[in-house]
Amino acid sequence: MAHPFLDADIADLVQKLRIDEKISLLGAPNWWNTTAIERLKIPPVRMSDGPNGVRGSSHFVAIPAQCLPCSTSLAATFDTELIYDAGIFLAQEAKIKSSVILLAPTCNIQRSPLGGRAFESFSEDPHLSGMMASAYVNGLQSEGVAATIKHFVANDQEHERTAADSVMSDRALREIYLYPFMLAQKHAQPWAYMTSYGRVRGLHCSENRQLLQGILRNEWDFDGIVISDWFGTYGVDEAINAGLDLEMPGPPRWRTQPLVSHCLTSQKVLPRVIDERVTTLLRFVQHQARRNPDVVYGDGKERSRDSPEARTFCRKLAADGIVLLKNQGHLLPLSAENVKHLAIIGPNAKSSVISGGGSAQLKATYVVTPYAGITAGAPSDVVVDYEVGCYAHKYLPTLEANLETSTSESGWLCTFYSCDEQGKLTEPIADFILRDTRVKLNDFLPAGLSSTWMIKLTGKLTMDKTGPYDLGLTVAGRAKLWVNGKLAIDNWTKQTPGDFFYGQGTIEEKATLDFEAGVGVDILVEYINTSPPKNGDEEDDMRSSQPALMRGVRLGGCERIDPDKAIDSAVSLASKVDAVVFFGGLTPEWESEGFDRPTLQLPGRQDEIITRIAEVNPNVIVCIQAGSAVSMPWADKVGGLLQSWYSGNEAGNAIADIVFGKVNPSGRLPLTLPVRLEDVPSFLNRHSEYGKIHYREDLFVGYKHYQAVGIQAQFPFGFGLSYTEFSMSNLSLSAATDVDVKVSVDVKNVGNKAGSQVVQLYVSYPDIGITQPPFQLRGFAKARNILPGSTRTVQISLNKYAFSFWDPSVNSWRVSVGKYGLHVGSSSEQLDFKVIVTVKKGFLWNGL
Ligand code: BGC
Questions:
Q1: DSSP for 206-222?
Q2: pTM above 0.85?
Q3: pLDDT digits over 609-624, tens only?
Q4: Beta strands in 600-719, from DSSP E residues, in sequence order
Q5: Whose CA is nearest to atom 6 of ligand 1?
Q6: How far apart are CA 412 and CA 406, in angstroms?
Q7: Which residue of 71, 103, 106 sits with most ligand 1 atoms within 8 Å of its CB, as the best mutation to test the pocket?
Q8: Hey, what domains does the chain have and what are their CATH numbers?
Q9: What's the gap in Å between 647 CA and the centre of ligand 1?
């Protein structure tokens, strides 16, 4: 028997829909689902963030998920097959969260390492980004889960992200910023796109007909749906006419019955255009329902998986992204022969730094900290000691591990109340046990709340040491912290704006309290969903205050340390041991949404402590956890250096696998690590000024700039060491006069450990009087697991993309006549071979 929706003819269905139903389909009922029309058996389909795991449909009571490495780490593998497998893994994770759409991958360009979401994007290089995105999308969609490639286009920094106009040349737009999307469209055809918050050419991307219709649909033949970023729809008719199919999240601000009806009556939007958008949307929903009937017509529940296979995969994925930057005198890998007494030092050692912040963050099923990974991975006769050395958090660490409810469950109790017109609380409406002291309330509220409401969070907080602790309360809305019935922090009456909650919250207000080891104190956090009155009246007046746009509260805390003594203790420990592993870097609160990082410098006193421990011990290995670049003024003083990114919940095990040589490092840098901020190409134009971000570095993003102007990087793009050595030989070309060429090269392992090498191919263009970067990555291949003494032949195929540039005078890609250099080597600065391809017949092309 025909299924009422799966077998329906979409054109028929659109005819049967009433106008109010069509309008409701172009918006959403809530944060994560499309609209269902029960009368016509149209089901809702669910979406979820993305990109380093599948969080599920609630920030509030999150069902734990596997946390994969961030995108810079994925790109550092330079391994498209592995990233394809990561796509498959994510599709499985999506389905167990009853989702058939993943809001990923993020495919913007790391124009500056300071970009708040640089960790979420793959690379500074458009070819590497596009190939990684293609592999990710192909893996995901091979299992029927739709990718929503984002953010289309130029969400390359967070400053004034919903307003700023990215001002750039046609060439930069095409050759750098659209390029990864174009490659993904060519090689993987994502089924959905998400628009950027900001503007391009003066028009918001969600209203930008040239981008959505002109480039995406007409030039690239895209036939899936385009959805807005969350609250990134800014009007009714412009967005519908430009080609935006779905406003997210719901309930809609713009696609309401009165507003859309008004646009129809005034003929600002024509019924034909509404039908086009509805048709596209329903076609997409039908495809997703056909591909995943068990999920779309399933029980809607969200589940977690934590299997040995999943753990093994995440561990391998994480280890393969780690980049070995320095290894003086073969200090690494550590073994029982070279180390008897090991010190672990640093602010990240015992912290759960597994991903960047914002919408990419999720509650992990479990976390292996670096400390846990190293202690578990160290040979049994190695003695391991620990000192924190310094703190480097932006907000005090969350406290869920130290909280219990009155019924002795782990976490704290969250009770909801409505407020009546006088501001009096009703009877409790609902309660939940939360295992997180970072409480986000945007995508979930219990039924039956009035427009002003309150929560009370209660629990017993127990610390493991006697002494003073700092507690901190940050809020979007208003909040107070009470400890044992006494007001400890007031972030309610008077507030100082900060960048908490996508830039919509306050700074962290702090208090210091004495704790006795093992003795619990009663904690109460009161939160209300309003902002303080703006009229300067600081009275606790619920009636004159406004509902907060973002809603959330965060309680943090940690032992108060004497910073000088902490450093001294770490230095003293370092002076007594055979080797030190220092774990530092950033945290999800330094790299997140809604703001950019102010500096490349490591937070806290990390630079100072690394320098000091390196003075007393030659065997210091620094492991940096960060999604992008940090400055390393101590780089020449330490013996070993690892860039381990945010590597997901297997972080500690993956790092230990590298440190103890279970895995031979094979990651390569997907971005340049600069010496100084001033060297970064976008340094002079990184902020939005008067609403515009000027991309004045143009084509010279990342290594292209460093090479063109001769600036030495701290570590160049594509760089990474191994525990073995490789040689390359026999570079050969399939044809020397065509753009469709195959390049092959032999890679020999000339060291004594099995290992993997990344062969990189950069193209230099003929001088025809047009500006071109000196070298552009156009191909790469990973030769995996070559045994000592063995040789592997690696092949890289090139096509017209490798020889083209955008010619704005004819609005086309151009391949010009001339001699192109193909440079092959192991990093952007280690190009050992060159062959020439002579293109005899130039041509123009459009499309893909
Ligand atoms: C982010 C998107 C994300 C969305 C939903 C926005 O803040 O920019 O990347 O998918 O939220 O969480």
A1: GG-HIIIIIIIIIIT--
A2: yes
A3: 999 999 999 999 999 9
A4: 620-625, 640-643, 692-694
A5: 230
A6: 8
A7: 103
A8: 42-244 (3.20.20.300), 309-391+561-668 (3.40.50.1700), 400-559 (2.60.120.260), 726-845 (2.60.40.10)
A9: 20
